């Protein structure tokens, strides 16, 4: 089947940052994406970020002679099977309705004979304004598909229609317009073709196929950092690379387990035989962890942010030379402690403690406080986060077992062998 292609036009609304998520979801469905940004969109999302997600050049300047010579706005409009304007601001929809073409995006829209999908996002008062409603009616009469916005609270405190529909809903509409099968499972972060047909397929290091001590066991692993939004373009994060968690997930799969890996924002290849679910925030990770239950073993390796911004504005916080804006924090839910008290508590629950001092003492206190079975403590005062090596102290109610500094994949295999003996 010939690969379907969309041209995504990102206009300058506060919801432009969600275009990155939309691109990710669309590509997971097997649809190619090329992007065009308006000048104002670049105030919210960088062309570099969008280019990384689309794996293609991002177009923005109609008067760039090199771009016009190499592809041109006419070719951009013709090479797509569908043109998607997301977010579609009141401004760009007004231009579309009036046939105005004063930049690359609007010129493409006027020059195309391909189907067009507009996904509105704006303030509730702008959405309800007679001019906007008149423009929407004109666009629909012209054959443009205009999605209805979601209802929700606005940055100004108002509530009503105007919020950008959630990226999975937009992805589903795009697939429908392209007559392309839509796989809802891929919108949850499940990467395509990451689960092996049998655990043995993911055991290249074992010469004896009978050596699969975790066959039939379900293992849940979390890995990487979480990002907690401050505003649409800034976030609170940490230096976790996810490498240790991914190595543990790979070792578990190699030993025959059915592995679910819930990963924060990292750029790592999914281990063979592993179901991977990508998340961003602590709240998203909590939700996916609970969805993954029941499980025999849970290994909470992720460096989950302890705090998040108490209030996240819908618009970027501007530096205006006045006083530095205060950052009020709220505490995130404790995933490890929640699992320890859960009705479907894993048979073996393991937490990680990233410490810069008094590793064993802090891990022992955490073991009691969290209610888990083991705490794996490691010293992150050096280059462990992002590095190739690690050293563990495994703290249980029976004592402490210390392992020397070793490559992370070696540590992961050793840990999984210890877990297989315990379950």
Structural description of this entry:
The protein has helices spanning 18-28, 47-54, 65-70, 72-78, 90-98, 104-111, 124-128, 130-141, 167-177, 243-254, 282-291, 335-340, 359-370, 408-422, and strands at residues 5-10, 32-37, 58-59, 82-88, 116-120, 145-146, 150-153, 159-163, 218-223, 228-231, 234-236, 258-263, 274-278, 297-300, 307-309, 329-331, 348-355, 374-379, 389-396, 399-407. The longest helix has 15 residues, at 408-422. The two termini are 46 Å apart. It is an alpha/beta fold and 423 residues long. Helix 1 (18-28) packs across helix 9 and helix 10 (243-254) packs across helix 14. The chain has an eight-stranded mixed β-sheet with strand order 13-12-9-14-17-18-19-20, with helices on both faces. A six-stranded parallel β-sheet has the order 3-2-1-4-5-6, sandwiched between helices. Strands 7-8 form a two-stranded antiparallel sheet. The chain has 14 helices and 20 strands. Strand 19 and strand 20 form a beta hairpin.
Layout of strands and helices, then pairs:
Elements: E1 5-10, H1 18-28, E2 32-37, H2 47-54, E3 58-59, H3 65-70, H4 72-78, E4 82-88, H5 90-98, H6 104-111, E5 116-120, H7 124-128, H8 130-141, E6 145-146, E7 150-153, E8 159-163, H9 167-177, E9 218-223, E10 228-231, E11 234-236, H10 243-254, E12 258-263, E13 274-278, H11 282-291, E14 297-300, E15 307-309, E16 329-331, H12 335-340, E17 348-355, H13 359-370, E18 374-379, E19 389-396, E20 399-407, H14 408-422
Parallel strand pairs: 1-2, 1-4, 2-3, 4-5, 5-6, 9-12, 9-14, 12-13, 14-17, 17-18
Antiparallel strand pairs: 7-8, 10-11, 15-16, 18-19, 19-20
Helix pairs in contact: 1-2, 1-9, 4-6, 5-8, 10-14
């Amino acid at each position: 089947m010939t690969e379907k292609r969309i041209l995504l036009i990102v206009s300058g609304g506060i919801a432009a940052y969600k275009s990155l998520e939309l691109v990710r979801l669309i590509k997971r469905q097997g649809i190619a994406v090329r992007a065009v940004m308006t000048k104002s969109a670049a105030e919210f999302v960088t062309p570099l970020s969008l280019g990384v997600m689309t794996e293609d050049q991002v177009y923005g300047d109609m008067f760039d002679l090199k771009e016009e010579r190499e592809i041109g706005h006419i070719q951009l409009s013709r090479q797509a099977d569908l043109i998607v304007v997301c977010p579609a601001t009141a401004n760009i929809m007004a231009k579309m309705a009036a046939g105005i073409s004063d930049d690359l995006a609007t010129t493409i829209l006027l020059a195309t004979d391909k189907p067009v999908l507009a996904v509105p996002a704006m303030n509730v008062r702008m959405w309800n304004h007679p001019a906007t409603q008149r423009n929407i009616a004109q666009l629909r009469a012209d054959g443009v598909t205009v999605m209805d916005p979601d209802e929700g609270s606005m940055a100004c405190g108002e509530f009503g229609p105007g919020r950008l529909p959630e990226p999975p809903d937009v992805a589903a509409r795009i697939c429908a317009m392209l007559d392309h099968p839509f796989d809802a499972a891929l919108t949850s972060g499940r990467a395509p073709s990451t689960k092996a047909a049998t655990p043995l397929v993911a055991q290249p290091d074992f010469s004896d196929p009978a050596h699969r001590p975790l066959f039939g066991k379900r293992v849940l692993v979390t890995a990487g950092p979480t990002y907690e939004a401050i505003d649409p373009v800034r976030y609170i994060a940490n230096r976790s690379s996810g490498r240790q968690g991914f190595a543990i997930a790979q070792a578990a799969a190699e030993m025959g387990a059915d592995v679910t890996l819930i990963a924060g924002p990292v750029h790592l290849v999914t281990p063979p035989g592993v179901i991977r679910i990508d998340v961003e925030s602590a709240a998203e990770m909590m939700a996916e962890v609970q969805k993954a239950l029941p499980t025999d073993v849970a290994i909470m390796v992720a460096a989950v942010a302890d705090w998040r911004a108490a209030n996240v504005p819908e618009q970027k916080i501007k530096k205006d030379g006045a006083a530095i804006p205060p950052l009020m924090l709220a505490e995130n839910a404790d995933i490890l402690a929640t699992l320890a008290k859960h009705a479907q508590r894993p048979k073996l629950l393991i937490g990680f403690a990233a410490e810069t001092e008094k590793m064993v003492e802090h891990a022992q206190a955490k073991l009691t406080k969290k209610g888990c079975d083991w705490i794996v403590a490691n010293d992150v005062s050096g280059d462990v986060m992002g590095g190739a090596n690690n050293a563990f102290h495994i703290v249980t109610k029976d004592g402490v077992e210390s392992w020397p500094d070793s490559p992370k994949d070696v540590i992961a295999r050793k840990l999984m062998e210890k877990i297989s003996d315990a379950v």
